[in-house]
Amino acid sequence: MAMVPRKMQSRATRNIFSASDDTTMTKNVRATHAPDDRHVEVRPLLNVVQDILHRVASLIPDIVQGKPVQTGAVEDSNHQSDLAEVLDISYYTINQISCEICCKCSSGDGHATTMGILSMLSGYSWDAKVVIALAAFAANFGEFWLVAQLYATNRLAKSVAKLKHIHETLEQVDDLGLKFETINNLFKAMLDVTNYIVQFHELPSRYIHPEAPEMLTASILFPGAVYWTIRSILFCASHLLDITGLAHGYMTTITESWELSSLAHKLDNLNGHLRKQITLCHLHLDDNKQREAFETLQLLFETSHQDNLKALKAMFCSNNDPLPLFDGSSKQRVSIEVLRRKIVLLYISDLQNVSDQELVIFEQMYIESRQDSTRLESQYELVWIPVVDKGIPWTELKPKFDMVQSTMSWYSVYDPTALEPATIRYIKEVWLFKAKPILVVLDPLGKVVNLNALPMMWIWGSLAYPFSISKEEALWNNEKWGLVLLADSIDPSLLYWISEGKYICLYGGDDMDWIRKFTRTAYALAAALQLPLEMIYVGKSNPGKKVQETINAIQAEKLSNVLPDLAIIWFFWVRLESMWHSKSQHSKTVENDNIMHEVMRILTYDSGDSGWAVISEGTGSMAQGKGDAFLRCLNEREQWKDTAKDIGILPAMADYIQGLQAPHHCNRLILPGSSGGVPDSVVCAECGKTMEKFYMYRCCNE
């Protein structure tokens, strides 16, 4: 093969870098492009090419320094069948291009050779052109270094090496370092450009049309990118020949290194443009993909099915994960099949607004429902879906996620970051999740029967099964206001006291002076009237350090019974708030619903600064009021004792407390945010007037 003097090649290259007209070059390259109907899946071929170049890059330093080369185990490729199909189509072309590169890489006219190769590849797509050209070079390059690798240990390789002058090259290594470093940089740039071009052609037209603006802009870059990659291939091939000629006077020059660096810079510049466009294309593609996924979820949850798996798979298995759930009882990953034809409760929350108290009560309810698998109320499954903030690194959120998940014996999403944006959007836009947890209920066929069953769960527990809106209405129709609804089973002794017909007083607040006066006065009056009285302190909503200190003081001074666990106190108040939310969802108000009226009164008491109390005789009549009015009623027994003889003690107390209500009062009602929002107007539970609406932002970090 004739060698062109290095000075002539360098001058020719400098002329091309300085005087080439990219517009004219692009036009000429496009003129060679006449793709036919053949489609070549080039990814398997590119994988092989990358494997050759990466392995050679890792072997060269040891080979040129004469060090023993470690050969790794041969791995079978998963794409062998695909690769065989590609080679059937392009084997002849690859060999033809390989010969063209070997014969003309050192001709001195890289431009003409490149255009010749492009003409030979005219019938292929842009991605196939560049991958086939790269494969043709990789075959020669890999063969050269395979012989170099085996030279010291294999007689056949040694003989071949002598014919190719490889043995002389390996014996003179002083000048190879800079050459290989520069070539490696060019290899990387060539592979990057090739990968980007292939990625563009792999984009699914289902989500991004070839005529989309992002794709059209990218297609303008393809001719130049393919052209300069093939030019770079020719330079690398020329270097390969130079390596074998080092012993005959063809030494590496600074100009040669500059030429290769310039080509790498050219490709890096193209890479920057291609990278930008592929990013824009992926954004366009992802938008369309998520839009389709969102519409699919809408359709699935609005359509009847034979079971619930289609809808649940669309929600949890969008990445084809066969085990998207985590079983809190077995601590194992499980498939979506565990939910087939079950009533499924989706507990949706973020990681900031899920409280320890809520998890404790939830756990108690869930375990209770599992104790007898034959009970109808146990035929449901609970799944926690944490909605994580994608703006915060998962490494920062995962410890909290792991901690919360470890407390759950039910199912949860194994990897919240794997949930598709369309799923999160659906949860927020259709199921109205904001910040506070919600409990969405799906029937065994995957139909949504309740957008938020949390109020039902807190009020009635498993008795709310199957947690549908119609069940909620039926439960309310059978309820009446009284101590059983108000207090449920917050204290083990409560039902016993009720059966004994005792007077039971629930009181709250955190004013210890009032608590001391009230409890002592109440017990004294009960003793005087010979009334069996039991008193329980129920604290305040969102109980914290101050409520715990109040509990400790009440116990130390033996003032009354208490709810000793803050989680139980939290549950008492969240049940009341849930009653308000549930009634509101059914369009009940203070004016048209007695339970709503009584719940509002107690919530108003809790929102104030003073204490409050409710006294009930078993499941019968009740008296309730703010702390000062109630204490005054107890102290002024003489004022209502005659009325008590006619209508009873508690009705008389209730009337007297009502009479103590000042004509001018200032009641507050603090309602926690909910997924359904807050009503535009709320009337005062005492006077019936519409309350003014204010916005309050509170941080209770006790």
TrEMBL record:
The family database entries (InterPro entries) matched by this protein are listed as: SEO_C, SEO_N, SEOA
Gene Ontology BP annotations? phloem development
Q: Where is the Sieve element occlusion N-terminal domain?
A: 20-305
Domain Sieve element occlusion C-terminal, by residue range, is: 470-701
So which domain of life are we looking at?
Eukaryota
One Pfam family name from the record?
Answer: SEO_C
Q: Cross-referenced PANTHER family, in alphabetical order?
A: PROTEIN SIEVE ELEMENT OCCLUSION B-LIKE, SIEVE ELEMENT OCCLUSION-RELATED
Q: What is this protein called?
A: Protein SIEVE ELEMENT OCCLUSION B-like
